Phosphatase
Amino acid sequence: MKFISKIMTIFLVIIAIIIGATFYAFKIEPYQVKVKEYQVNSTSTNMKELKIAQISDTHIKEDYTTENLAKVISKLNASNPDIVIFTGDLYDNYAKYNDDANLINELSKIKSKYGKFAVWGNHDYGGGASNQYPTIMENSGFQLLVNESTQITTDNGNIISLTGIDDSMLGNPSTENLSENINADYKILLSHEPDSLNNYINYNYNLAMSGHSHGGQVNIPFFPSINEAATSTTNLASNYKKGLYHIGENGLQNIFVNSGIGTTHISARFGVKPEISILKISL
C-alpha cells in the first residue's frame, strides 16, 4: 500500500507540474516582455553610441490586442532609442481579427530620434492584410522599405543606410534597384526571414536584422531538441534562430534575429520571453 501511495503521489505531482507549466506558457510568459541590450561592435572612448530598438512579430489577435501592445511600447520608449525597427508580422490573421484605428494610435506613440522603419513579413501579406499594412505603417509614422534604401545622418555626422528587402515567402524580394556600394559609414539590412539574409551578404552590410523565428517560442530546459524542432519547422529560420551572430570575413558582419513579441500557431511561450531588443552600435 505504501508503494502504491508513493506512486500516486508522484503521479499527482507530475500532473500538477504539467498543469502549472501549461498555465504559465499560455497565460503568463507571453505577456512578460523583456528589454535586452546587445553590444554589436567594439567600442572606445572617442566613439558615439547609437541605440537601435527592434520589435518584430507582434501578431495582434484576439488574445494579444493593442492593450497588450501598449505595454510593449511603453517599455520601448523608456529605452530612448535613436532608431526604431519593426521587422514584420503586425497582425496574426487580419481576416480573423483587426483593429486598425487603435493599432495606429498605439504605434504612433513610439518615439525615435532619427526615425521609425519597417519591412514586410509573410503575415502582412497573408490573411487579407496586404491592402492595409502599408497604410497602417505610414499613418503610424513608419517608413516602409520595400527593396529600397534610405539614409539618416546622426548628430556627429555619421551616415547610416537602411535597406529593406521585401518578404522572402510571399513578397517579391529584389536587389535590382540597390547598389552594392552604398556610401555610408554604417550599413543596415532589414529582412523578415533570417535565413534569406545570406542572399545579400555581398552587399557588405555591417548589420542585418530580422525576426520571423520567434526564437522557437518554446525552449524547455534540458530538451534542446524541442526548440530546434520548433525553429526548423519555421520556413527560412533554421540557420539563424535568435540573438546575435558574427559572420563574414573576420566576423565583421552581424546578423541579429529578434525573438518577437507575439505568438502564432499556439498562443504560448515557454523559455522564450517576448523581447524588445536594444542594439548598441559604436561609431
